[in-house]
């Protein structure tokens, strides 16, 4: 009976622990959008809010986040969302690696894929 209770406690605690990890994505980020490490710095703001069920809202590159979701997957805390510049959608995703987000954005309309990093805004 005791092993069953320990297992039940672990199942109940798991979603709370995962939600806590997902919440670590919340806040203001400065995204480095340089196309190469030698290019001049080019940064844009990203603000992430994490709601119930991992729903992501906020903004990226001065566009409102649409249909965002964050989750703990394979031991990583990650998110994905869509934004738009008024002409075409942008699909962005990233994962927390240490204190930094490592991500990428795919532009359907402009036909490019850009890898980027983000640090907490100061």
UniProtKB/TrEMBL annotation:
The keyword Signal applies. Residues 1-18 form the signal peptide. Keywords: Signal. It comes from the Bacteria. This is Protease inhibitor Inh.
